[in-house]
């Protein structure tokens, strides 16, 4: 049985992860972590599902990692980096689903992954992992005369924009087109913007209600458009992917992996 620690256990993804761990006989909940000031501290991690697990929610990271196999993190960048340092010190692998990292914070993840295995992906669903490959293929075919725009929609509670997935899709399109996303991205438009620069990749963000996560990559040419869309209807898809990543880590050495590695799609990318 793989012993899993869930960070951010009282969050939206924390709930989805706990449910998926309880449903998988190959996994056992080793510890559940939350903020020191969370009202969940000291309560049974199964309380919100009407079950008794014997695992009390804690903020003691070092104690939570004792004897653990993997930590799964869907929190905020500053919390993820604290968990990462503790995982590095304890020699425990980590699945990072959190989004919104700066370039420097991403470098810190790569540095820690010299010592421990890390799966780091802004979207753990099978569908988005496939979408990344489809976008790369489409961008190669539609390299000339097609404008690339990325549209994403999420629930009203999301704090980062554009979504990590939208940025990853933008990187996939940019690399297939031989561009650098940092210098060609346009994040929203307002006022007299002038005509569209053909070399840019545009991003548009929608926030509202309970949208789990929609992403469209639009290739707009003259006389036609190609739209590649993924819509998540349940967080279970992300949780199942993250737990698949946790099992993958148990078989791998140090390094940074993504969901293409976990799903064995790397060669096809
Ligand atoms: N890779 C993927 O497939 C997916 C990634 N995500 C990403 O996962 C992250 C979490 O999303 P979601 O579950 O909706 O967010 P929530 O806000 O619902 O949950 C975040 C959890 O992290 C905790 N947390 C926040 N800040 C800290 C901190 N400084 N120290 C310790 N714990 C902290 C929160 O505690 P508290 O409530 O007390 O603040 C909460 O338990 C986001 O970055 C999101 O973009 C989401 C879905 C899929
Ligand atoms: O915050 C969310 O909810 C999600 N965040 C991820 C992202 O930023 O890409 C993935 C998913 O779309 C849900």
From TrEMBL:
GO MF annotations in UniProt: 4-hydroxy-tetrahydrodipicolinate reductase; NAD binding; NADP binding; oxidoreductase activity, acting on CH or CH2 groups, NAD or NADP as acceptor
A Gene Ontology BP annotation from the UniProt entry: lysine biosynthetic process via diaminopimelate
EC number: 1.17.1.8
Active site: 154 (proton donor/acceptor), 158 (proton donor)
Domain (Dihydrodipicolinate reductase C-terminal): residue spans on this chain: 127-263
Binding positions (NADP(+)): 35
Subcellular location as annotated: Cytoplasm
Catalytic reactions of this protein: (S)-2,3,4,5-tetrahydrodipicolinate + NAD(+) + H2O = (2S,4S)-4-hydroxy-2,3,4,5-tetrahydrodipicolinate + NADH + H(+); (S)-2,3,4,5-tetrahydrodipicolinate + NADP(+) + H2O = (2S,4S)-4-hydroxy-2,3,4,5-tetrahydrodipicolinate + NADPH + H(+)
Keyword Coiled coil: no
Pfam families attached to this UniProt entry: DapB_C, DapB_N
Binding site for NAD(+): 8-13, 34, 97-99, 121-124
Identification of the protein by name: 4-hydroxy-tetrahydrodipicolinate reductase
Lineage per the UniProt record: Bacteria, Pseudomonadati, Pseudomonadota, Betaproteobacteria, Nitrosomonadales
Name of the gene encoding the protein in the UniProt record: dapB
């Amino acid at each position: 049985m793989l012993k899993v620690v869930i960070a951010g256990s009282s969050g939206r993804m924390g709930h989805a992860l706990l449910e998926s761990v309880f449903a998988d006989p190959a996994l056992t909940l080793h510890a559940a972590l939350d903020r020191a000031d969370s009202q969940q501290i000291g309560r049974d991690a199964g309380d919100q599902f009407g079950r008794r697990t014997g695992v009390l929610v804690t903020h003691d990271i070092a104690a939570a990692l004792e004897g653990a196999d993997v930590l799964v993190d869907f929190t905020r960048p500053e919390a993820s980096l604290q968990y990462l340092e503790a995982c590095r010190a304890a020699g425990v692998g980590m699945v990072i689903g959190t989004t919104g990292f700066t370039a420097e914070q991403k470098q810190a993840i790569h540095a820690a992954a010299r010592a421990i295995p890390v799966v780091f992906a802004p979207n753990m669903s099978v569908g988005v992992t496939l979408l990344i490959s489809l976008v790369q293929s489409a961008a190669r075919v539609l390299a000339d005369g097609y404008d690339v725009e990325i549209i994403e929609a999420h629930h009203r509670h999301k704090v980062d924009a554009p979504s990590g997935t939208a940025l990853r899709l933008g990187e996939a399109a940019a690399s297939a087109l031989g561009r650098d996303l940092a210098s060609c991205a346009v994040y929203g438009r307002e006022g007299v913007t002038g005509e569209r620069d053909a070399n840019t990749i545009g991003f548009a963000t929608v926030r509202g209600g309970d949208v789990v996560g929609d992403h469209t990559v639009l290739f707009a040419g003259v006389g036609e458009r190609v739209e590649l869309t993924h819509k998540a209807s349940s967080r279970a898809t992300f949780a199942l992917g993250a737990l698949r990543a946790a099992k993958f880590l148990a078989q791998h050495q140090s390094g940074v992996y993504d969901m293409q590695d976990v799903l064995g799609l790397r060669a096809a990318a």
